[in-house]
């Protein structure tokens, strides 16, 4: 098993006042040649956006973009519908940029900060028609068990959000002293584990709030929750 630790304090960071962003991988003005991607995972941004602020209309192309609000409300509009849509905590948004899409992302409130993860995954198909979808998930459904949020577009066993890549995004909330064994879908995959909050142990390594770890060259691994913890998994092909 190969383990690569990504401590929270080694991420790129920018403070624009209205935006405070932590970059797990090279993004914008943050560049680290050793952190350009993890397999087909290209971006994992941890953003805090001030009330009523956000990103004005901008383009994307040939990328699978997943946004997960952790607190606050995300307001989204793109040129597939030109309607403002609202995405709340425990909801997930998926956008396939494909041949090209324009969108805006804003904090949908006037008095509360918006905290979110945004993930970019390199697709296994280019030139597809742009599409948008979102779905709500119940927090109780990930209590000490895996809750799959997003799967591959051709995964007939999963009725939910899909991306054009052999990927699986999921969450779990573990009670203190609880153990969980993650089984990878394919031996060709790796997994990027973001410890949202709490303290966990993997292979005798300890991970605290916003620490992350990349795991590959294995079919399973065990997590022990030293405290009550929230985890986010991105399983992804290591070659693409």
From TrEMBL:
The gene is yhhW. Binds 1 Fe cation per subunit. Keywords: Iron, Metal-binding. GO terms for molecular function: metal ion binding. Its cofactor is Fe cation. The keyword Cell membrane does not apply. It holds the Pfam family Pirin. Gene3D superfamilies: Jelly Rolls. This is Pirin family protein. Residues 155-236 form the Quercetin 2,3-dioxygenase C-terminal cupin domain. Residues 13-121 form the Pirin N-terminal domain. InterPro entries: Pirin, Pirin_N_dom, Quercetinase_C, RmlC-like_jellyroll, RmlC_Cupin_sf. Fe cation binds at residues 58, 60, 103, 105. Belongs to the pirin family. The keyword Membrane does not apply.
